[in-house]
Amino acid sequence: MTVAGYGVSAAASAAARLRELIAAGQMPPGHQLREVALAAELDVSRNTLREAFTALAGEGLVERIRNRGVFVAVPKADDVRRIFAARRLMEPAALAWGEFDSGQLDTLRMHAERAELAQRWGDLDGMAAENQAFQTVLMLVGGSDILNGLMGRIQAAMRLLFDSMSAVPAFHALYVQGHRKVAELLDAGEPFGAAQAWREVLANAEAELLKHLTA
Description:
With about 220 residues, this protein is mainly alpha-helical. It has helices at about 10-25, 35-40, 45-60, 75-95, 100-120, 125-140, 145-165, 170-185, 190-215, and strands at about 1-5, 10, 30-35, 60-65, 70. It has two domains: about 10-70, Orthogonal Bundle (Arc Repressor Mutant, subunit A); about 75-215, Four Helix Bundle (Hemerythrin (Met), subunit A) (Up-down Bundle). It is built from nine helices and five strands; from the N terminus they run ββαβααββαααααα. The radius of gyration is 18 Å and the shape is globular.
């Protein structure tokens, strides 16, 4: 089924909406996706919703448990490695080679400052949201719909990882410190330095996640 006038299947649209809800933290790891209620909420048929579930399962965002139903996935070590392999390639490259205008630099600084404020308030949800917003700016500078679509998938997966680290404030602090450093290096006209600094943030974050998930 295709949504009239848009050329996007109803299943793809439903999957995109569920992805957005996961990325926004409204569907945490282990949350059960109840088919009847969710189909009504998204205004799609149950068959269409099942197609959306299949797509999200392929991305590692949901899992079907026999005789129990469909649940938002609980991240595993392999998920961390898969996600960070993509992030290490995409985000430092955007910093090194992207052409940031003054408005985008201002936006990066704004998200860095908001993340610091959220940290002072102990607001982990706020820290996670600002990190996602920071990532979004990095990908938008590429001007590619393909990259933006891929980043949407990565952000949903990252939100599940953030939620799994809700009791580890030091993990979120890695990103807050990285935001500030990257913004300062870009302001100083050092994009390659910013790219290297962000690679270090990603490496440290991956190591912390793996330590937590394999403990």
